[in-house]
Amino acid sequence: MKKTQILLNHASGLILEGGGMRGVFTSGILDNFMDRGIRFPYTIGVSAGACNGLSYMSGQKGRAKYSNIDLLDEYHYISIKQLLTKGNIMDFDLLFDKFPNHIIPYDYEAYARCSEVYEMVTTDCHTGQACYYDEKHNPDRIIEIVRASSSLPFVSPISYVDGKPMLDGGIADSIPLLRARQLGYNNNVVILTRNKGYRKPSKPTTVPFFFYRKYPNLRRAIAGRNALYNSQLDMIERFEEEGAITVIRPIKPIEVNRIERDTRKLLDLYNQGYEIASSIDFIHA
Fold first, then answer.
1. What number of other Cβ atoms are within 10 A of residue 71's Cβ?
2. What digits encode the pLDDT tens for the residues 167-191?
């Protein structure tokens, strides 16, 4: 695999796209970075990217892989049965309570000690706009935020952060490169979970009348998400061609869907991420 060189300096940012279970690609990359002690001054994660980013920030190599692949086989926490019985296609009580607090404990103290900035993205149901949170010290609020960032529209209930209704950050800002640039991080690495050239269908997402009737701005944001996402990919590919950013994405055709339960496919995608990251050399400024 061809070697890539990336400059790592005070203006470096790491942007982690979501994508549900496709996020195991990102966890493979981040585990490789942790093996090599690679840290960025600024990291921002969306949805599954927010979950992976938390384990990266606390330095818990293998934690994301273990929860997304090994424990999926044991707990079967993604299913239509979950949706029908609990109103959520994923078992959030397991993922955001039992996992971080008991089964595979999250190291909140290590996260609080880290000097780098980390933000997670949610979508405000009232405004339909993205919210960016950098909580490090309140474990309950950290879980509130990452849970909200991962709450998929239609198949997960609305979550709350500081009493405000929130959903998946990917609705309003799937790939928050501009957020990083606005904060002064202009030397960015973007981790995507789709192949180069991928685009969503151009037609708007249909939002059934009985969903989110109290939140017209959210309905508009969901309806326009495909167009927004595609425009973000256009921008990223343009910056990439100009040499302004580095993009890491899957090379092989993606066989993993957002709620994938085949752990063999998930492990293959994880390994692909780890291997691709191994081909990157970092130059420290």
1. 18
2. 999 999 999 999 999 999 999 999 9
Q: pLDDT of 221-269, one tens digit each?
A: 999 999 999 999 999 999 999 999 999 999 987 888 888 889 999 999 9
246-249's contacts with Cβ under 8 Å and 24+ in sequence apart are 246/4, 246/6, 246/188, 246/189, 246/190, 247/189, 247/190, 247/191, 247/192, 247/196, 248/29, 248/189, 248/190, 248/191, 248/192, 248/276, 248/277, 248/280, 249/191, 249/192, 249/193, 249/194, 249/195, 249/196
Question: pTM above the 0.85 mark?
Answer: yes
Q: Considering all CA atoms of the chain, what is the largest pairwise distance in Å, rounded to the nearest integer?
A: 53
CB-CB contact of 46 with 173 (8 Å): yes
Res 110: pLDDT: 98
Compute the distance between CA of residue 65 and CA of residue 52 in angstroms, rounded to an integer: 9
Express each pLDDT in 198-217 by its tens digit. Answer: 999 989 999 999 999 999 99
Cα 60 to Cα 48, 190, 196, 245, distances in angstroms? 16, 21, 29, 27
Ranges assigned E (strand) in 12-91: 12-16, 42-46
Task: Give the 3-state secondary structure of residue 37.
Answer: coil
